[in-house]
Amino acid sequence: MTVMNNRKAAIIGCGFVGSASAFALMESGLFSEMVLIDSNRDKAEGEALDISHGLPFIKPMKIYAGEYADLADAEIVIVTAGASQKPGETRLDLVKKNVGIFRNVIPQIADHNKDCIMLIVANPVDILTYAAVKFSGFPDNRVFGSGTVLDTARLKYLIGEHLQVDSRSVHTYIIGEHGDSEFPAWSSTNVSGVPLTYFCEMRGHHEHEKAMQELAESVKNSAYKIIEKKGATYYGIAISVRRICEAIIRDEKSILPVSSIQHGEHGISDVALSMPMIVGKNGIECPVPLQLSFGETQKLTNSAETLKSVIADVF
Fold first, then answer.
1. What is the CATH number of the domain that holds 269?
2. pTM for the whole thing?
3. What is the pLDDT of residue 91?
């Protein structure tokens, strides 16, 4: 039996997202060992060397390019491998290409490490999280996606800018698909316990419905806007990966909107999407009951149906 090393992480895929995530994790001090795996071995070796050269300014750590056999004792395996999203392409357009990649990658992870936590970051993350659970045979509390962790951070940032308050004082979630059918859970949004509409009025904002709609659209279109301007998004998701890893390694019991298989909450089952979950050393511990309005419940159902229609086409 392999003894797990809770100070070791592995990243599968060394594109923009994988490399940025490796850099963010190097800076975090969470791990003492990190292996990078890519179909292009030279790319993995180059990224490992480049990131390693910053270690004299951080903390001692072993960073290297490796093979799937090097996953054997990794506590967390982060999967970013997949085709990238092109300008004008939705996340769901990627699905067939990336499910094909996962049919090859996920069984190789499971063959070498049956006890890790698998964090899925590649897009479309909800479909690929569902695929990873099916292809790995792992219990689904140990296979989950980055989901709407970044989307939620984007919303907090925009609300903070709108109200001129620290975004860390904003409490809200983007839920559902990480994609075009996602939406904010406005009914539970607050700023340090103060309902959002009251706080808006306190700061001189009164056209609530219009402002909320504009903020939600800005979040939904953020990735498209960044891709149009610079070709890819990677810094925001890299910090999101770091945040999720912190919750796991430190057993923080943090509440994060990760993508996971649903088991009847809000009448939704057998599909992966994002809802608030308690995340700790064993992965997902349990869902957090989120009070939704009737309209929000309908949006969540529609988001689930959107994803299920894609699953039906692929599996």
1. 3.90.110.10
2. 0.95
3. 61
Please tell me the distance from the alpha carbon of residue 314 to that of residue 267, in angstroms, as a whole number: 23
- Cα 108 → chain centroid: 22
- Burial group, residue 78, by CB count within 10 angstroms (0-12, 13-18, 19+): buried
pLDDT of residue 148: 97
Give the residue numbers marked as catalytic. Answer: 178
| Concatenated DSSP letters of 119-175 | EE-SSSHHHHHHHHHHHH---GGGEEE-TTHHHHHHHHHHHHHHHTS-GGGEE--EE
Same domain, 111 and 200: no
Q: Burial, 108: exposed, middle or buried (Cβ in 10 Å; 0-12, 13-18, 19+)? A: middle
Residue 74 sits in which domain range? Answer: 5-145
Give mean pLDDT in consecutive 10-residue pieces for the chain, a chain of 315 residues: 87 97 97 97 98 95 97 97 77 82 96 97 95 96 98 96 95 95 95 93 88 90 90 94 98 98 95 98 95 96 96 88
One domain, residues 109 and 14: yes
Q: How many C-beta atoms surround the C-beta of residue 131 within 10 A?
A: 27
Q: Are residues 187 and 114 in the same domain?
A: no
Specify the pairing of strand 74-79 against strand 5-12: parallel
Same domain, 131 and 177: no
The secondary element (H helix, E strand) that includes residue 35 is strand 33-37
